[in-house]
Amino acid sequence: MASHEPIYPTNISQGIVKCLNTFRTRHEDEDFEVNIEGETIRCHSFMLASCSEFFGGLFRSNMKEKLEMKVDLKNIPMKTFQLILQTLYSGCELLTKDNVLEVWSAVHQLQIHFLIQHCEDFVLNNISLDTFEAYKRYASFLQSEKISEGVFNYKLENFMTLRKTEIFLRLDYKELLELIESDGLVVTSEDLVLQSVFEWINFGKACISAVVNDNATKLTSSTEVITHSSKMAYSSQGIENNNVSSENVNEVKEVTDKSNSNDISQDSLTKTTQTPPVDQKEGAPSAPSQY
């Protein structure tokens, strides 16, 4: 007899969720403590273990947390954990544009896979010029190929708008090359691609001049000089591989070569990079908004 996937009638599923939420509000048989930021919240171990691989693994182990039936959670704010817990019991929506990155990071840490999927779907539906840089950083940290691909596709499809922003001018060489090489790039003409590349190069030249003419004794200045000099050097190496018409490639290379030879001398680079180090405060971003 062939096996079939179970069918979950909506009214039954909703009834179960309603009962679980009522059970939570009574605070009965709460057998596990979660300590966050000096506060304690009591929960049901069966609910945590059934939804979270993190807690499931903990309860299957002989770790101290299992024996004492309590755990200290780090890198997850109490308000975020309470929101996640409420969703597990009630099925209510938990995401907004303001909290999605924090929740996404937390459910990754707790390994709640259906909420990870929910967060990624929300992110994909809310990619914009205002959000795609943050989403790209989080996707890299959380190793989400789905979101990384979604952000890249957004840049391809919205290149005509993106090219008018400073965000575009601050793209690194690899990002720029990936865009202009892609067959999915949406543009009205190849001339606009070439013009965008010129503007990107000129922005790099202006940054070099600004850094050199700024306070040469600052460590940040030497770092920026090295960064933008490398950016200019790379642009001449790979620009010929893009989809811009071949007769214009040499013009781009010529501009780039001139910028490398004329805008900043090797001596000025040497002098700038030899500035004495300064003390820096520790300030790594928290994970990952948290990063």
From TrEMBL:
The UniProt regions of compositional bias labelled Polar residues, in chain numbering, are 258-277
Give positions of region: Disordered: 237-291
Provide the BTB domain boundaries.
30-97
Which Pfam families would you find in this protein's record? BACK, BTB
Could you tell me which SMART domains the record lists for this protein?
BTB
Q: Where is the composition biased (Low complexity)?
A: 240-249
Q: Which CDD domains match?
A: BTB_POZ_ZBTB_KLHL-like (cd18186)
Question: Which domain of life, per UniProt?
Answer: Eukaryota
Put simply, this protein is called: BTB domain-containing protein
